[in-house]
Automatic annotation (TrEMBL):
It comes from Kangiella geojedonensis. Belongs to the cytochrome c oxidase subunit 3 family. InterPro entries: Cyt_c/ubiquinol_Oxase_su3, Cyt_c_oxase_su3_dom, Cyt_c_oxidase-like_su3, Cyt_c_oxidase_su3-like_sf, Cyt_c_oxidase_su3_a-hlx. The chain crosses the membrane at residues 20-39, 45-66, 87-108, 161-181, 193-210, 230-258, 278-296. It is found in: Cell membrane; Membrane. Keywords: Membrane, Translocase, Transmembrane, Transmembrane helix. Its EC number is 7.1.1.9. It is a multi-pass membrane protein. The keyword Protein transport does not apply. This is cytochrome-c oxidase. GO terms for biological process: aerobic electron transport chain. GO terms for molecular function: cytochrome-c oxidase activity. Residues 8-297 form the Heme-copper oxidase subunit III family profile domain. One of its GO terms (cellular component) is plasma membrane.
Amino acid sequence: MSEQENTEYEKYYVPEQSKLPVIGSIGLLLIAFGAGHMVQGNSSLSWILYLGLAVMIYMLSTWWSSTIRESHDGLYSAQMSRSFRQGMIWFITSEVMFFAAFFGALFYGRVLVMEWLGGSSNNAATHDFLYPDFVPTWPMTSTPGELNNGAPTTWEAMGAWGLPAINTAILLFSSFTLTIAHHALIEKNRQTLILFTSITALLGVIFMMLQVEEYIHAYTEMGLTLGSGFYGSTFFLLTGFHGLHVTVGTIFLIVMALRCAKGHFTPKDHFAYEAGAWYWHFVDVVWVFLFIFVYIL
């Protein structure tokens, strides 16, 4: 192969061996172990969860700092940029499947199991032998007495037109502000970029604060908890995991705002910012489906 043909190939940066994957694996193990004990009420081992979170924060911050430094040193090529894009696409695809599983569980329980337990024509025996007093209504606001030694447990269902509606408006507006910021980046309007990226991050913080307030209200005044039957478990799983994603996205936006203030991005080289925008818009779309199927219907 001639020297001229050799120059047609792009360089592909291969980083040195790192201990970060091992450190991340240890952090995930600690998180799983600590969270399992916390859910079971063993508060004496809850520190393991926080230790695992600290390990993960250290691993991720170190990894991403290295990625930023390598990018600014000019070590990445167009091929590496394509790899980043493919990786982010597959990551969001996995997140779609993650939430699809929980929405599928909601559909299965609400549409199929409720019908079986309610004594449909093909499942009369299930109703008669398991829960003869069960009335298939949604949202469920009580568990049959058979599950509690004859004493049914009751709670209130979460309404859609209070804090959930406000949070919906906040997230939809945040997509608008982030789009303005993204266009400002392309148009080299640094001041607008920093301002609207910061506004979007602030809206994410407000969303999380309101969701915490909603959870406190549910637990203290409505009797709605993770133990509130199928309705309570699906409600907190879907909204809780979504809240976790909003937290990650908000941290992403805060970091992007700081990087914008340092002048890190250009119209031709800003995939890190674009990836954050993809993730945030994905989180917004999930919330729209969640608001419809969990709160309204």
